[in-house]
Amino acid sequence: LSGAKAPTPSAVNRPKMFRVAVLLGLIAVCVAEVEHCCSAEDRRLIQKQWKVLWRDTSSSKLKILFGRRILLKVTELKPDAKALFSRVKIDNPEAPEFAAHSMRIMNALDMVINLLTDDDALDEAVDHLADQHAVRAGVKKEFFTAFGEVLFKGLSRVLDDFDGIAWKSCFRGILGKIAGKLQA
Amino acid sequence: PLRLTEVVALRLKSVLKMKTLLVLFAIACVGGVLADHHEHECDALTRLKVKSQWVRAYATGHEREDFAKAVWRAIFAQAPDAKTLFKRVKVENPDSPEFIAHILRVMAGLDIVISILDQEDTLKEELSHLHEQHEGRHIPDNYFDAFKVALLHVLPAQLGRCWDRDAWDSCFDLIAHGIKGH
């Protein structure tokens, strides 16, 4: 090169550069946060851990039991939610109607989890679930928060291998989006 | 040292055992043949077989997407008109996230009924739920037939040699019958 040195930043420029550096630093931290939140590794872990529940031929019985427990627990914590499940006979949890419904909820979870590695299709599926819940009067956002808590607690008991941080980092966003079209 | 009579007795015993085994084997064969005649029924054992084969075929993650896409390609190859039912979910672009999410929803519905094939009451309940969901859509019977042909075409590709066509044939009919309501 011609030997021209890069101009040394003048005293006037220094605060500006400092601001740029701070901004860049903030961006780096934010990207790291997003990256950590439901990262590719988190998604892979969730899929791997969830698979265990579905391996066995008779696992549908376990899934129904698990789904039923979750719904009963959520409605115990949020009594206003109970009436929403009267059509599927929540008052008689042993009824086939409630068994089938418990299975549907577990199956929706399964669909979402298996789509974790296809972001665009996952968004579409979650959006559709949001629509399905938005048309049901009386569904509240807080029910989904409770559902998440009960689900994580339940999973930590049925899965020997359960990475709570990975599950929470992905499901907070997913449950938030499913509840995203609700009024209350 | 064994005496000759003992040796003879032992041999006789083992020959008898062999004979018993042969007789049992023959009964098992005849039973098998007879059972073959009944294989067009989706009975308890057939349901278990379908369930376990489904778990393998249905797979997970991207493999599941590929499985679903293959089934739908085979459906539209037989019944191109069926595409009109899927306009809202962007069937014209089968790789679109809308279409993928949709076909996975349908497969998930099939997954529910197959996994509860061995729980009669719950199965009945789910089939009537699916019947209600399909009732208003006026799906012609030949679309269900196309679905069956497509599924029975793609399944062996997923499962290799270990799949039982008759079992699927009969259990799919039971499911389709429940969804159609006739």
Automatic annotation (TrEMBL), chain A:
GO terms for molecular function: heme binding; metal ion binding; oxygen binding; oxygen carrier activity. Residues 1-32 form the signal peptide. Residues 37-183 form the Globin domain. Pfam families: Globin (PF00042). PROSITE patterns: GLOBIN (PS01033). It comes from the Eukaryota. Gene3D superfamilies: Globins (1.10.490.10). Belongs to the globin family. This is Erythrocruorin. It comes from Amynthas sp. FB-2019. The lineage of its organism: Eukaryota, Metazoa, Spiralia, Lophotrochozoa, Annelida.
UniProtKB/TrEMBL annotation, chain B:
Residues 41-182 form the Globin domain. One of its GO terms (cellular component) is hemoglobin complex. Coiled coil: none annotated. Residues 1-35 form the signal peptide. It comes from the Eukaryota. GO terms for molecular function: heme binding; metal ion binding; oxygen binding; oxygen carrier activity. The keyword Oxidoreductase does not apply. The keyword Cell cycle does not apply. SUPFAM superfamilies: Globin-like (SSF46458). Belongs to the globin family. This is Erythrocruorin. It comes from Amynthas sp. FB-2019.
